[in-house]
Amino acid sequence: MKPILTLTEHGQLKSLSDPIRAEIMMRLIEKPHTGQMLSEKLNLSRAKIHYHLKELEKNNLIKLVKKEEKGGVMQKFYQSVARGFSPSTELLPHVKDVSESSRQLLLQMAEKNKKTILSAPENSFQLNVSSENPSDWGFVGSMWQVEVTDKQFKEWIKKYFKLMGELRSISRNSENTSEDKKYFYISTMAFEIDELIFEEMENENGGD
């Protein structure tokens, strides 16, 4: 699975703009599913799921990854071709569709975050030490609002992805065989808003 797929066709944008397909895509980014599995999880008819899968496959957003026979029935497993999607320059004039496809995928990410939090083990959120230093905590939960230029924000994004790349490299290191390794789920969202959400901005220079 590719880390990022560049969308080059308007049909791909339209396909991802559909809320149901966006939800299907989030499931298929996680792992392969059959139409039956998606039908049960999304509480939709097999026919409706089949239609949406065909649309996603037609637009090269998902692919058939394996087949298994079960009870005389051939099951087809589909998976997303990438973990993330980015529109090509040629598609940027389709502002409405670009925006809506991004919005729908972020909404599905938010829903996935909620379900993951609710299903996480109790010890995930235990504080073993009383500290105002986040590095002493076993989890991260924070919301921020900042006022910067587009250029500054994009520079920060580069640093963020570089940092996550370093963490993924550590995770994939075959020599990292420590028995106390644990799984951690990380999700981040950042986007422009119309107005401040918090009434007071933080005073970085000290004071009340």
Q: Can you characterise this structure?
A:
- The protein has one domain (2-129, 138-172): Arc Repressor Mutant, subunit A, CATH 1.10.10.10.
- Strand 2 and strand 3 form a beta hairpin.
- A two-stranded parallel ribbon has the order 1-4. Strands 2-3 form a two-stranded antiparallel sheet.
- It is α+β, with helices and mostly antiparallel strands and 208 residues long.
- It is globular and about 60 Å long.
- The longest helix is centred in the middle third of the chain and has 25 residues, at 95-119.
- The protein is built from 6 helices and 4 strands.
- It has helices at 10-17, 19-30, 35-42, 46-58, 95-119, 150-172; strands spanning 2-7, 62-70, 73-80, 82-87.
Low-confidence regions: none
Distance between the termini: 49 Å
CATH architecture: Orthogonal Bundle
Total number of helical segments? Answer: 6
- Output mean pLDDT: 90
Beta content comes to 5-15%
Please identify which CATH superfamily we are dealing with.
Winged helix-like DNA-binding domain superfamily/Winged helix DNA-binding domain
Could you give a short account of the major beta sheet?
2 strands, parallel
Number of strands: 4
* Strand arrangement in the largest pleated sheet: 1-4
The overall number of domains is 1
Instruction: Assign an overall shape.
Output: globular
- Return the string of H and E elements: EHHHHEEEHH
The percent range for helix content is 40-55%
InterPro entries: ArsR-like_HTH (IPR011991), HTH_ArsR_DNA-bd_dom (IPR001845), WH-like_DNA-bd_sf (IPR036388), WH_DNA-bd_sf (IPR036390)
Keywords: DNA-binding
Pfam families: HTH_5
Protein name: Winged helix-turn-helix domain-containing protein
